[in-house]
Amino acid sequence: MSVRKEIKFAFLLGxxxxxxxxxxxxxxxxxxETFYKIGDIYLKFCYSLAASSIFYFINQHxxxxxxxxxxxxxxISKLTFVRQELNQVLLNLDLPKTDIxxxxxxxxxxxNAWAKIDPTKQVYDYMDSSAPFNNWFEYLNYKESKIKSxxxxxxxxxxxxxxxxxxxxxxxxxxxFPFVLGISDLPNWNRERYLYTFIYNQYxxxxxxxxxxxxx
Length: 216
Fold this sequence. Notes:
single chain, 216 residues, mainly alpha, 2 domains, two-stranded antiparallel ribbon, 74% helix, rod-shaped
């Protein structure tokens, strides 16, 4: 739990000064009444400083940290759902489950897996529907629409995103929108090349985002 440095400094200064004055300096006779009054004013200031720091910690810092913790859980949950959607796509490409889990594959493996399927044939995905999709283009467009929706939900947690995580999520978003909006306009040969490259790059991007979210 991180507390602002100036708050830590103010609290430590107040507490250490209070302990020093109450336990040590009050037992030493003051050289003059003026010096005693200055010490008394400083002691009251230190009590106020320590009390203000505690008030800030309880009334502002703790609620903020609680909100941040909930936001992080929300972010991790949404990113995990996105990863699960992409996991299912990779499983339907017949990539080994163990390789998917450990990210032990590269773009070439996805390309080779794509080469073995007929993208015009029906695709089954029992996570989403018992009825088959007409072809891989329809299936991937459906998946990407779901991913787009999950990522848009993260807009409510933007305040909790650090710059690295924000950039990683943005990278995933940038891989989603061109697909949903423009894939049907590509020639067939270019479309298929775009698809396997896209699938790999998006999975790599979401893994990076998940790793960064878990470190928050």
